[in-house]
Here is the input.
Amino acid sequence: MLSLRDCLDYCDLTEEDVDVLAEHEHLPHDVAAHVACGLVQTPDGIVLIDHVMEDLIEQARHSGLLDKAEHVSHVYARFKATHPLAH
Here is the structure.
């Protein structure tokens, strides 16, 4: 049986990637992990996660939560590096 960590490693996701998705979509962490693992299997799914991260950064900036915006920006940069979009 695969652990949650095994699943994230397989999909090249971090706990922080999952945290961002869970927060944005109001999902429990384990559900968000399974959703994220499925999404990164397709270009459209990667684009969706990309937009979720961009949206959470904008929400944090708009709310004046600059530390949070910076943290999510770092998570987003790592995600983009490991899951590049085909342009």
